[in-house]
Design goal:
This protein has about 325 residues and is of the alpha/beta class. Helices cover about 50% and strands about 10% of the residues. Strand 4, helix 3 and strand 5 form a beta-alpha-beta unit.
């Protein structure tokens, strides 16, 4: 864990960014925060964060972090009309750390543009969600110039205490995160598939998943997705659209490097049915804004089932 308080800039307080920034503040770092919707960041001011009006107000920090949805969003906050690089007041932070999940291509382009301004770019995507952060079990994978990465890692460990893995130069962390999210898609699809099979044959979902979580095939992931599959809990940690995006990135990389990916391709096709099923809902957009575990509802329909909440008090394994 970081021993020395630093001046940290933070961009993005969405589903994960808020709690990550909160951990830095609680660890006595001097954290200045910008978010597109300022009101979402303002509660952090009550615990010692400094909410700023403009991205340029972050230019005086020691290290700048960001977590946004897509590569285009990252380019916008860095190089857009109101971006920090475009409007920097004085010297830019020497290290930019990005915790977003973006493509390798976007990351290469952004790294090149930052290099022109003398800024080192560290990729630090994370594994987990809001519940995982709260439980202190978030982890991260890091790549970029080794000296800059090693300087950033003690700060990253504050919000990712389970472990921070340095995997090398350039965009290697992006590749690791894409591979991670491909497995995420494959596992949730198969977990839903076998849960529905057991359920249709008479096994309550909560009982089947308790067995799975207690066995060798159980994991942190299967445990914290159990409430969603048992009680159809709709709190969104990751949308189907973002999962589809990452599966596409994985398929693209596999094609470029001649790595067969039949399981990934099949998972991508199953996920696509969820987007078709959304069009049959009263509110397609709301259906697609549910957590990606809502794929269970679509797969149940294909199995001739209509899922209802079991209303069982099941844990997340993160307590």
């Amino acid at each position: 864990m970081s021993k020395v308080s630093q001046k940290i800039g933070w961009i993005g307080v969405g589903r994960m960014g808020y709690q990550m920034a909160e951990r830095l503040i609680e660890a006595n770092h001097d954290v200045s925060i910008w978010n597109r919707t300022k009101s979402k960041a303002e509660p952090l001011a009550k615990i010692g964060g400094k909410v700023v009006d403009k991205l340029a107000d972050l230019s005086g920090v020691d290290m700048l972090f960001a977590i946004v949805s897509e590569g285009k969003d990252l380019e916008e906050v860095y190089f857009g009309k109101d971006g920090i690089v475009t409007n920097a007041k004085g010297k830019l932070p020497k290290i930019f750390v990005d915790c977003s999940s973006i493509s390798v291509e976007d990351s290469v382009r952004i790294r090149g543009r930052l290099k022109e301004h003398g800024v080192e770019f560290v990729c630090a995507p994370v594994s987990g969600n809001g519940l995982v952060i709260k439980a202190g079990k978030l982890s991260s994978v890091v790549s970029g110039p080794e000296a800059a990465a090693k300087e950033a890692m003690p700060v990253i460990e504050v919000f990712a205490p389970r472990g921070v893995s340095y995997v090398g130069e350039g965009e290697l962390a992006r590749i690791c995160k894409i591979a991670h999210n491909v497995m995420l898609g494959v596992v949730i699809e198969n977990l839903i598939e076998i849960t529905l099979l057991a359920n249709k044959m008479g096994v309550p979902r909560h009982a089947f998943l308790a067995f799975m979580n207690n066995g060798v095939m159980g994991s942190m992931f299967t445990a914290y997705k159990t409430p969603a599959l048992v009680n159809l809990y709709a709190s969104t940690t990751f949308t189907p659209e973002l999962l589809r995006q990452d599966l596409d990135l994985g398929l693209e990389l596999g094609g470029e490097w001649d790595v067969p990916r039949p399981v990934t391709a099949a998972t991508r096709e199953v996920l696509q049915t969820h987007f078709g099923a959304a069009q049959l809902q009263k509110d397609p957009e709301a259906y697609l804004q549910k957590d990606f575990a809502a794929l269970a509802e679509t797969m149940a329909l294909a199995a001739g089932m209509k899922l209802t909440p079991e209303n069982k008090n099941v844990g997340t394994g993160l307590e």
